[in-house]
Task: inverse folding
């Protein structure tokens, strides 16, 4: 045994088995720690990118409304239905599209504990009884969201679905009062008196006092379809009839494992919006 030990450590260049084991153990711990650190750093970077992408998406929707360019709208014919509201149909053989209505803007809906955002295109009448409407409500706002799951989701649907990357989720959305649900906001070119809708209109952002149905999206749940549609129509039967001008909309976003949390602030300002990401804990109280 003495000879073996001497051979291993001869000339001061070798190590004992115990020493080698200690070095390997320490190396293993350092490797695991480094891998964990790199993993956490990557997860943090991924979450930051999710927040940046979400912020950019909301800004792009607002900018589209301000520009008034809706390529997906131009190929349809607009008419007035039996309730006096605008409706889109696919023209059979060309013709003059959109003669009865215009796009007022777009609305964004979130649902608690979901990674999906639905972006609705909202129509409005160009004229009411021969004159230009003086408000969004007077223009008979109507979302283009098909006929709902009860009718197998037939009809024209211009809704866009945006999905948060990395399995992140929106925990809640609120505006003004933290205890109230504001799961929907809208960006519009609000009609101005004596001016045709869409011409010289003023950009405005609205916050709807609305709680999304958690049993499914507008395509999956008849109740969700009905309540969302009624809210965007600003009907008297719900709390959305008089939506307030958007001050600040807060979206609380969590990573998949809840290790990262942040708030995206969307503020309505004159002629547009601003967004700001705040890295802080947020949860439903």
Result:
């Amino acid at each position: 045994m003495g000879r073996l030990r001497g051979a291993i450590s001869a000339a001061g260049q070798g190590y004992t088995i115990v020493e080698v084991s200690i070095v390997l153990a320490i190396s293993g711990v350092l490797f695991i720690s480094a891998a964990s650190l790199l993993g956490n750093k990557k997860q943090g970077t991924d979450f930051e990118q999710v927040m940046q992408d979400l912020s950019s998406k909301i800004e792009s929707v607002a900018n589209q409304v301000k520009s008034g360019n809706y390529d997906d709208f131009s190929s349809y014919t607009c008419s007035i239905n039996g309730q006096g509201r605008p409706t889109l149909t696919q023209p059979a053989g060309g013709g003059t599209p959109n003669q009865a209505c215009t796009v007022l803007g777009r609305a964004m809906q979130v649902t608690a504990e979901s990674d999906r955002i639905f972006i609705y295109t909202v129509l409005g009448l160009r004229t009411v009884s021969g004159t230009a409407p003086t408000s969004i409500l007077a223009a008979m706002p109507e979302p283009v969201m098909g006929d709902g799951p009860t009718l197998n989701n037939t009809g024209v649907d211009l809704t866009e679905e945006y999905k948060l990357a990395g399995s992140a989720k929106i925990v809640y959305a609120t505006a003004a009062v933290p205890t109230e649900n504001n799961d929907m906001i809208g960006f519009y070119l609000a009609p101005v008196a004596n001016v045709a809708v869409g011409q010289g209109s003023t950009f405005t952002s609205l916050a709807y006092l609305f709680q999304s149905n958690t049993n499914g999206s507008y395509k999956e749940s008849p109740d969700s379809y009905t309540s969302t549609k009624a809210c965007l129509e600003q009907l008297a039967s719900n709390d959305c009839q008089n939506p307030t001008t958007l001050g600040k909309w807060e979206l609380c976003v969590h990573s998949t494992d809840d290790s990262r949390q942040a708030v995206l602030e969307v503020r309505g300002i004159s002629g547009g919006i601003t967004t700001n990401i705040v890295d802080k804990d947020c949860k439903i109280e």
In short: The longest strand covers residues 101-110.
